[in-house]
Amino acid sequence: MKIAIVTGASSGLGMAFVRRLDALGGLDEIWGVARRGERMEALAAELRTPMRPLALDLTRLESVETLRVLMREEEPEVAVLVNAAGFGKFGTCAELTLQETCGMIDLNCRAAAALTAAVLPYMGRGSRVLEICSSAAFQPLPGFNVYAATKAFLLRYSRALRWEAAPRGIRVTAVCPGWIRTDFMDVARDTKNGRTVRSFPFAQRPETVARRALRNSRLLAVTTCGLPALVQRVASKFLPHCFIMACWEGLRRA
After folding, report:
1. Rounded to whole angstroms, how far apart are CA atoms 155 and 159?
2. Which of 152, 167, 191, 239 has the lowest CB atom count within 10 Å?
3. DSSP states of 25-90 as a string?
């Protein structure tokens, strides 16, 4: 059984990846992983490819173990893994609650790494792993510090994992887009933690990011899925981080 596994499949970018994989075809089943099972069931009804909704909270390690047991029982061939589940909040380290700080680290870092490790034994030559990072990974961002740091971890993890998995013919891509028009923006701004970002310039549609990411993952180790994030990536290599952080502060104050 040839499958794809997509986390964060109940909304936003994860849902866009499910729809794109369905449109591309060639899969026997898509496994969607998210907390909101009813949303995934509604999505499954729209698809041509059978979708298995797995209502799991990936911040709990037992959820990863549940998926590991399921794969051991069914022994699927995992053609594509998309780690799209993510969580972010604006606020300084002093302003964020402990729950918010730990939640970002648990979901964006620990869950992504744990799930990837669980799925890799079921991947083979030609399989692809897409770790959804962010252009926030390219530089430190005061007031969005913890989120940016978690994505920097995932970017470094993805780059090294690509080398580790290459002998088996598995391709790993870090997907680092800029702003995406999803409910992530509303969640991130739903805070009492002082200044936030009021405008999201050059925001992309999730469908556009999913399409470009899947196309680019056949060749690229890192894809930004758009010109603005690519410029940000290049600029972060040459401009001092203090200058970039000052520009970021200007955007937050605007």
Report:
1. 6
2. 167
3. ---SEEEEEES-HHHHHHHHTT-SS-EEEEE--TTSHHHHHHHHHHHHHH--EEEEEEE-------
Q: Determine the distance from the C-alpha atom of residue 81 to the mean position of all C-alpha atoms in its chain, rounded to a whole number.
A: 11
Give the ranges where the chain is alpha helix by DSSP (H). Answer: 12-24, 37-44, 61-74, 98-105, 112-119, 145-165, 184-189, 206-216, 227-238, 241-253
Per-residue pLDDT in tens (0 to 9) along the chain, 254 residues: 999 999 999 999 999 999 999 999 999 999 999 999 999 999 999 999 999 999 999 999 999 999 999 999 999 999 999 999 998 988 888 889 999 999 999 999 999 999 999 999 999 999 999 999 999 999 999 989 999 999 999 999 999 999 999 999 999 999 999 988 876 655 545 455 555 555 566 778 999 999 999 999 999 999 999 888 898 899 899 989 888 888 887 776 66
Task: Compute the radius of gyration of the chain from its Cα atoms.
Answer: 18
pTM score: 0.92
- 106 vs 54, 71, 85, 209, CA distance in Å? 19, 22, 11, 24
Question: Is residue 122 among the annotated active site residues?
Answer: no
Annotated catalytic residue, options 87, 90, 138, 147? 147
Distance CA 36, CA 193 (A): 27
Sign of CA dihedral 190, 228, 9, 116: negative
Q: Which CATH class is domain 1-251?
A: alpha beta
